Amino acid sequence: MFIENGFLPQNKFWKYIVGSLLIILASTIGQIPLLIAVTLKSFSSGKPYPTTDSELMSFLPSNMTLFLILLSFVFAFGAIILVVRYFHKQSFLSVTTTRKRVDWGRIFFSFSVWTVFTVGSTLLMYYSSPEDYVYNFKPVPFLILAVIAILMIPIQTSTEEYVFRGYLMQGFALLAKNRWFPLVMTSVIFGGMHVFNPEVSKMGYIILIYYIGTGFFLGIITLMDEGMELALGFHAANNLVGALLITSDWTAFQTNSIFKDNSTPSVGFEILTPVLIVFPVLLFIFSKKYHWSDWREKLTGNITITKPIQNTESNE
Predict the structure, then answer these.
(1) H or E stretch including 201?
(2) DSSP 36-59
(3) pLDDT digits over 36-67, tens only?
(4) φ, ψ (nearest 5 deg) of residue 247
(5) Is 175 domain-assigned?
(6) Is 178 left (phi over 0), alpha (psi -120 to 50) or beta?
(7) For residue 214, which of 248, 189, 243 has the smallest C-alpha distance?
(8) Of residues 230, 53, 248, 77, the one with CA closest to residue 153
(9) Into how many domains does the chain fold?
(10) What is the per-residue pLDDT across 183-238, written as a single tens digit (0 to 9) for each?
């Protein structure tokens, strides 16, 4: 099973702590180009150095800011590959799926389902409350945005999935010898990592319900499907389509998107709808398509390894 792929003779939980620190270090190094660009702009323009996230997001042209922010994930993704392959001596495929190769059909199916929902719900909101939205499309900036987003946002979302639903999921399983603890821990940490997003300062900590709920949804589909393919597709669609379709002054990504949301952010049923309605519907769709069963065991059962799993590096 997927979560047991980390149960290798050479793996110890302390390695996951060290490996996580190495990935964080790589991500921090990847932020240096952004800091250099902001510093140079501050010196050349005479503007004070930005001290808040909102000031930072508007200090440079939005496409340049997006590219430099996403660049740190390229460094982090490279670190994940190196940590898994050379520190844990584990194949990269084994932190992706239990299948003999990555199932791209699953990735594209999940991506397509969430893309259709995102586009449809956005257009519905636009036509139901047109006063809250501005048509923001500018061909050249949008084309540049599209190139940056298509090339780099899947790296950003894949990095997050490999860290939480792959690497740490298997690490916490090695520690707890069960399935519920890795699911809870990775979901809570994933949601907590979003506490620094500008949406939280605008809407309050209650929005963390959505982020933590999303973490649980991604963790559940990973455990039930014995691989990360569905989570990879969903997360890529969520961020990529969102960045291209709609932006606002208070979101983490401020882009040259097609629409701009000028409404005042508020916390209402729209925060709970994905967690309580949309995600359960998606779980139903995925479960029927991929014939999931034995939910209780796969999500909460104990893990008993009588013989250490052999390294699967040759499968990659």
Answers:
(1) helix 198-203
(2) HHHHHHHHHH-PPPP-SHHHHHTT
(3) 999 999 999 888 888 777 777 788 999 999 99
(4) -140, 170
(5) yes
(6) beta
(7) 189
(8) 77
(9) 1
(10) 999 999 999 998 877 777 777 788 899 999 999 999 999 999 999 999 999 999 99
Query: Would you list the DSSP string of 247-291?
Result: E-TTSS-----SEEE-SPP--SHHHHHIIIIIHHHHHHHHHHHHT
Distance CA 235, CA 218 (A): 8
pTM: 0.93
Residue with tokens 């956005």, as numbered in its chain: 122
Is 312 a member of any domain? Answer: no
Pick from 304, 210, 219: which is nearest to 251 by CA?
Answer: 210
Tokens standing for residue 91: 């194949």
Name, in order, each residue with C-beta under 8 angstroms of 196's C-beta and a sequence gap of 6 or more.
53
Q: Residue written as tokens 């990973």?
A: 222
For residues 96 and 228, is the Cβ–Cβ distance under 8 A?
A: yes
Q: Are 186 and 101 in contact (CB under 8 A)?
A: no
Domain that holds residue 174: 2-307
**Amino acid code (one letter) for 46:** G
pLDDT at residue 143, as a whole number:
97
Q: Tell the residue number behind the tokens 């690490």, with chain if given.
A: 171
Span between the terminal Cα atoms of the chain, in Å: 17
**CA nearest neighbour of 213 among 280, 124, 116:** 280
CA of residue 234 relative to chain centroid, distance: 9
Residue 73 belongs to a domain: yes
Residue 316 lies in a domain: no
